[in-house]
Structures are given as structure tokens and as C-alpha cells.
Design a protein that fits this description.
By secondary structure, this protein is an alpha+beta fold. It is built from 13 helices and 21 strands. The strands form 5 sheets. Strands 1, 4, 5, 6, 8, 9, 10, 11 and 12 form a 9-stranded mixed beta sheet that branches. It has a 6-stranded antiparallel beta sheet with strand order 15-17-16-19-14-18, sandwiched between helices. The protein has a two-stranded antiparallel ribbon with strand order 2-3. The model has no long low-confidence stretch (mean pLDDT 95).
């Protein structure tokens, strides 16, 4: 069963939260973070992207950068920009986008659940990215940013969400990107006990977003346990911070592809090759969105096309084979365009659906790319089925939005 516990959150005072809170470290580059933090010494970017405090171009993996993160985290605590709660608490964090709100519990998740597979993954991780985040967790002795979990819907936990969110929030603001962020504190001992008990009835938690942060946090916790000769199992480092949402609250949006060339084919030859496995229908200049599973939108030569995979080209009984990312990767990218490694091939790039299909059109019309392919989004149930089966999704399959805002709460490891 999923083991979680409350924790003493390190949080900004109510009047400073909008100055402290930031986007996650991995959704923007150093220069973008430098620009967003300009003139704001309280921005969390000074901790999660501390290279912004060095000259542009300074190596973000230099030991001095990690040292700066520690210095800045200490400064934020000393200045009262981040303050630790006196008692262990749970929190509820709500995000609102396009009039739709999702509510999650901020918890300390058990490292052992990650190590033994009760916290389930659906993506592979890269060791270099894991090591970067492990260094950040180690040097700060804290989970500065949460990971993003989903769990099967639970009526009792939904009732707690309803009860808590009927009250006054601790934080309530709209970020510069237009997304709303609202945050409640659960400090009632009986309700805290109810949250712990209900999660203990849930067989598995699922990583929705933040596989590298999850791996790094769990590996550092496991490392601390092995290196502590007096380890008992109840130390704070045995847990890492996550926001866990009921699965039905979450929506995965499309994750699309743009490709630089047609592998030596003319546009007509490429379309002819597609017709072997797809019903191809020209849609003209008006943007076409995939209508359903196994239907794709192709942008090529200033026109949109509908591509519908023919029966027999996919396997609906296979949790991986049913995915449109698998169909397109095998039948278009590999078999026609010769792209076999989505992680390293420089001929392909990926565009999150939050940017809209106009972004695909623009990148082709500019001449940067030759064609674009839009996919119907994966469902939460598909993600859960794949994680439960022990399989791994192909690269660049899921895109969750909105992203968790960093800096609303931090989890110290001591």
C-alpha cells in the first residue's frame, strides 16, 4: 500500500509567495530563468537555477553553481522569505487552467515505495539528468521542488478535498502564464490521520511528471539510509515531496513531432508511402486536429492532412502497441523517414500541445522543418495500464499541463 506522511513544510509568507514561486527548473533554460528573475532577489530561480547568479554561459553543472544553490537557500531562510512550519502538515494544491481545476495532496512519499515499485514509472530516465538533480538534493538537503503523482480515484480523499477547499486558502494567485494556483494547509490532527489512512488503502501511486526528480529524490534518500550507521527508518530522508492528484482530475495533452526532411522522398512519394498503412485525406489550409485514437494530423507543403491508421496496423490488446506514438514511430518515423532513436536523432524535435498546432505550422512554413505530425493525446487510463504492466512508454509520449509551481512548499530531509 502507498505510504505517505505529513511534513514540516518550508514555505514563503503569504505576502511573498508570488515573488518566490517559479516555474519548474526543467521547463526553461538558463537565460529564460535569468530574464524571469530579473530584479527579483526572492525568485526561487536563484535556488533551482542558481547559474543565473553567474555570468551568462557559465557551466550550470559547475560545483560552484551547486554551492550557490546552498548559499541562496540559506539566505532565503535567514531573510524570512522561506519559513518552516512548526508541525507536520499535509497541504492541498489546486491548479486552474482554462476554467478547469485539479486538486492534489502535497505529501511526503516513502522512498521504499519507489525502490520496490509501488510508485510506478512509465518513462525511462537518463543517468546524467538523475545525477544533476541528485547533486541538487544532496547539497541542499531538501526536495526544493515536488514531483507530480496520480492515484486511482478515492471517494474518502475526494471528500477531504471538498472539505478543505471549502475553507480559506493560504495562497491564491494567478501566475504570469495565466494559470491559477491555490494552496490550503491541513493542520487538523484527525484529518491528517484520515489522509494517511486513506493513502494506505491505495495499492500504487503513479509518476505523472517528474521521473528524474522522483529518481533523484528516492536515490538520495536511499543513499542516506545506507550511509547512516544509526539508520532506523523513521528519518525524514526516507521520504520525498510529491503532489498526488486523483487520476480523474488530470488531463494529458498532445505531444507532437516536427521533422527536418523526408529522407530523400518528394512530398508526393512520401504521401504515397503513407497510403500503404493510412487512409490519407487532404484537409486544406485550415488547421486539422486529430479526431480520435489512431487518427493523426499531418502538415506538409502548406496543407493539412488527416491520416487514419488502417486496421491491422496497431494492436489494441497491447498497452504499448495501441499507443499512437508507437504507431507513428514505427510506421512513419522509422519505416519511411529512417528515424529510429527519438532521444538522439537531430532530424526530429518535439512540441508540447500547450503551444498549439499553429506552432507546428510556423516551424514548417519557416523552412526550419519539412513536416509536422500531431497526435491524439494519451489518456490517464493508458498511462496507468502501461505502468501496471511494467512497460515503459516510448519517448516524448505525455505532456501534462499546467506544470506544478515551484516554491509553494519545500521538504527538508532532516
Amino acid at each position: 500500500m502507498a505510504k505517505v506522511k505529513p511534513f514540516k513544510g518550508v514555505r514563503p509568507p503569504k505576502d511573498l509567495v508570488e515573488q518566490v514561486a517559479s516555474r519548474p527548473y526543467d521547463v526553461l533554460n538558463s537565460e529564460e530563468a535569468r530574464k524571469e528573475a530579473e530584479g527579483n532577489e526572492k525568485s526561487l530561480y536563484h535556488i533551482i537555477k542558481p547559474e543565473i547568479d553567474f555570468e551568462p554561459g557559465f557551466d550550470e553543472h559547475d560545483p560552484a553553481v551547486y554551492g550557490k544553490a546552498v548559499e541562496n537557500y540559506r539566505k532565503f531562510r535567514d531573510m524570512g522569505w522561506l519559513v518552516k512550519d512548526d508541525e507536520e502538515k499535509y497541504y492541498i494544491y489546486a491548479q486552474t487552467m482554462d476554467g478547469r481545476t485539479q486538486y492534489g495532496f502535497v505529501v511526503a512519499a516513502w522512498v521504499d515505495d519507489y525502490m520496490n515499485g509501488r510508485i510506478k514509472k512509465h518513462e525511462l530516465t537518463r543517468r546524467d539528468k538523475e545525477e544533476d538533480r541528485m547533486k541538487h538534493v544532496r547539497c541542499n538537503n531538501a526536495n526544493i521542488e515536488p514531483v507530480f503523482f496520480a492515484f486511482p480515484d478515492n471517494d474518502a480523499l475526494q471528500q477531504i478535498i471538498d472539505e478543505v477547499t471549502a475553507g480559506e486558502p493560504e495562497y491564491d494567485f494567478v501566475a504570469p502564464d495565466g494559470f491559477g494556483h491555490t494552496f490550503w494547509v491541513i493542520d487538523n490532527p484527525d484529518m491528517i490521520a484520515r489522509v494517511t489512512e486513506e493513502f494506505d488503502r491505495i495499492p500504487n501511486l503513479y509518476i505523472a511528471d517528474g521521473h528524474h526528480r522522483s529518481a533523484a529524490a528516492a536515490l538520495v534518500g536511499n543513499e542516506k539510509a545506507k550511509n547512516n550507521p544509526d539508520h532506523k527508518g523513521d528519518e525524514e530522508y526516507n521520504y520525498f515531496m510529491a503532489v498526488a492528484f486523483p487520476a480523474s482530475h488530470l488531463r494529458i495533452i498532445d505531444y507532437n513531432r516536427v521533422v527536418k526532411d523526408l529522407n530523400g522522398l518528394s512530398e508526393e512519394e512520401f504521401l504515397d508511402r503513407l497510403r500503404l498503412n493510412f487512409e490519407v485525406e487532404e484537409k486544406g489550409v485550415e488547421t486539422y486536429h486529430p479526431a480520435r485514437l489512431h487518427n493523426f494530423a499531418l502538415y506538409l507543403g502548406g496543407k493539412w492532412y488527416s491520416l487514419t491508421a488502417k486496421p491491422g496496423t496497431y494492436d489494441d490488446s497491447d498497452p504499448i502497441g495501441v499507443l499512437d506514438v508507437t504507431v507513428s514511430s514505427d510506421l512513419i518515423l522509422r519505416d519511411i523517414l529512417g528515424i529510429t532513436d527519438l532521444r538522439s536523432d537531430k532530424r526530429i524535435d518535439f512540441v508540447g500541445g500547450i503551444r498549439g498546432l499553429e506552432e507546428l505550422k510556423q516551424r514548417v512554413d519557416s523552412g526550419e522543418m519539412k513536416m509536422a505530425l500531431a497526435l491524439y493525446p494519451v489518456t490517464m487510463q493508458q498511462l496507468i495500464d502501461i505502468a501496471d504492466s511494467g512497460n515503459i512508454m516510448p519517448p516524448k509520449t505525455t505532456w501534462f499541463e499546467p506544470k506544478l509551481r515551484s516554491g509553494l512548499v519545500i521538504h527538508d530531509l532532516d
